Amino acid sequence: MKKIVVVVFAIGLNFSGFSQDLSSILEQETANKTTIVTATFKGPRLLNGHSIETRKKGIFEFLISHRFGRINSGAYNLFGLDQSNIRFGFEYALFDNLTVAFGRSSFEKTYDGYLKYRLIKQKTGKNSFPFSVTFFGSATEKTLKDYAPNNKPTFTNRLTYTSQFLIAIKINSNLSFQFSPTYIHFNTVRKIEDSNDIFSLGFGGRMKISKRISINGEYYYNLDPFKSINSQNSLGLGIDIETGGHVFQLIVTNSRAMIEKGFITETTGNFFKGDIHFGFNVSRAF
To answer: Quick one: which of 24, 177, 191, 213 has the most CB atoms within 10 Å?
Structure first.
């Protein structure tokens, strides 16, 4: 009996030593390997604004966005559901890191085009890097005929440009944050007291609450808002629901527009006084 105990003890020591060796080997292999962090966000939109995400080469995505009227407009307007802005968007990934797109919004009858380029990817392991960076650049043309017949603006006068650096970090599989410094240039402004150049700082995040559902938040702070309107900083809260090839986003926000120059600089609703718009984004990748 004594011999059996000794043999079992020896086997145990050998097994323990083997496990430690295997663990060391795995740790060393992991340390020598570089892993790119993926799925920082569910899709290319955080809420109103863009996330760092770009699509794989060859993916075509169709996006429909709605923002209804203000909930506090009362029962006569069915709490905003009688009023709706809509945007159709088409996005195509030329490469894994480069997406180009075109869209049209009913808000001010605006056409927009943009590109997103993934500059830096967050990595872990041997050549780790702590965050991801994506550049976003867009141009929009407002075609709403809200001018006097003898004072028609030129095509150039109706253009606005947006540039953003989207900087994000995925803390773990459930939690991600994004910082979005933004510059917007208007070729023409409403009043002389308004600046043609507006700088804004965007903040946002996402927290998963289940395998397919996450809650999101987004806020833009304008450093030099328009003076001629009661400009408010844009705030949005929402839920992402992933269903196969779809990402469905339910949103409450004080912004009506769904393009950067609109929701960042031309929001006039006060979220905390009830000027809230319900809306959604639906995307389908092909």
So the answer is: 177
The whole-model pTM stands at 0.85
One-letter amino acid of 46: L
Distance (Å, whole) CA 29 – CA 252: 46
Contacts of range 211-216, beta carbons closer than 8 Å, 24 or more positions apart:
212/241, 212/242, 212/243, 213/239, 213/240, 213/241, 213/242, 214/42, 214/239, 214/240, 215/239, 215/240, 216/46, 216/47, 216/240, 216/249
Amino acid identity of residue 268, one-letter, is T
Q: What is the pLDDT of residue 26?
A: 54
Contact between 218 and 201 (Cβ < 8 Å): no
User: Domains, the chain, ranges and CATH?
Assistant: 43-285 (2.40.160.40)
Residue 91 pairs with which residues in a beta bridge?
Answer: 61, 101
Q: Classify the phi-psi angles of 258: left when phi > 0, otherwise alpha if psi is within -120 to 50, otherwise beta.
A: alpha
71, 79 in Cβ contact below 8 A? Answer: yes
CB 116 within 8 A of CB 54: yes
- Low-confidence residues of the chain, pLDDT below 50? 8-9, 13, 15, 18
Cβ burial of 27 (10 Å; 0-12, 13-18, 19+) is exposed
Q: What is the pLDDT of residue 167?
A: 98
The two structure tokens encoding residue 81: 């559901």
pLDDT (tens digit, 9 = 90+) per residue, 64-82? 999 999 999 889 888 888 8
